[in-house]
Design brief:
Elements lengths: L1 E5 L4 H12 L3 E5 L16 H16 L3 E10 L20 H11 L9 E12 L3 E13 L15 E3 L4 E2 L5 H7 L1 H20 L7
Parallel strand pairs: 1-2, 1-3
Antiparallel strand pairs: 3-4, 4-5, 5-6, 6-7
Length: 207
């Protein structure tokens, strides 16, 4: 089976990639499968910079094609925050509940019509000797005043997806994977990268 390495140690994110890639016939491995791989400090100023940094660092270390993503929540009333700091918005510890509480507190006086937001994802694909490409996707919605639903992870319980009329955490995985920012970035990756790999004679790393 073809193998793809995702540069993440986030179990929730890893599960989303597994659902997406397994359906396409790929065996997914993450940095959790490579304990010797060092943590990569996200020093970039944008989603794009961080995704490229993670993909290239892991690809150089492992000698295989690696896909890395950097993604997060952008809230218009907060000037785009939490943005690249989404996973650690409430502090250095990656605590989903604390992050949600901070966003809700900052929006407590903001009316529903002004709570517009989006999830945004940038995927970077780094191939040894083949350079790096990026692909982006987004999902529009707004921030709810309280949590709804028990699925997903991160900010999903308070993110109301406009096109589904439900919070992300109220969606089944299959529903979320049709409209999520990560799925949409992956669609672009599939449409352009796989075609170019075939033309150039490259193949996905084999397990």
């Amino acid at each position: 089976m073809n193998e793809v390495i995702i540069a993440t140690k986030n179990k929730g994110k890893a599960k989303e990639f597994e659902r997406i890639f397994n359906a396409r016939g790929f065996d997914v491995k993450t940095l959790l499968d490579y304990p010797e791989a060092p943590d990569i400090e996200e020093t970039g100023a944008t989603f794009e910079e961080n995704a490229i940094l993670k993909a290239e660092s892991a690809s150089d270390r492992l000698g295989k094609m690696v896909i890395a993503d950097d993604s997060g929540l952008e809230v218009d009333a907060l000037g785009g925050r939490p943005g690249i700091y989404s996973a650690r918005y409430a502090g250095t510890e990656k605590n989903d509940d604390a992050n949600i509480d901070k966003v809700l507190d900052e929006l407590k006086d903001v009316p529903a019509a002004e709570r517009t937001a989006r999830f945004r994802c940038v995927l970077a694909v780094s191939i040894p000797g083949g350079g790096t490409q990026t692909f982006s996707g987004s999902c529009e919605g707004r921030i709810l005043p309280e949590r709804r639903g028990t699925n997903g992870f991160g900010y999903d319980p308070v993110f109301y997806a406009d096109e589904m009329n439900r919070s992300m955490a109220e969606l089944e995985p299959a529903e979320k994977n049709k409209i999520s920012h990560r799925a949409r970035a992956l669609e672009k990756l599939e449409q352009t990268l796989l075609t170019s790999l075939e033309k150039d004679g490259h193949q996905w790393a084999k397990s």
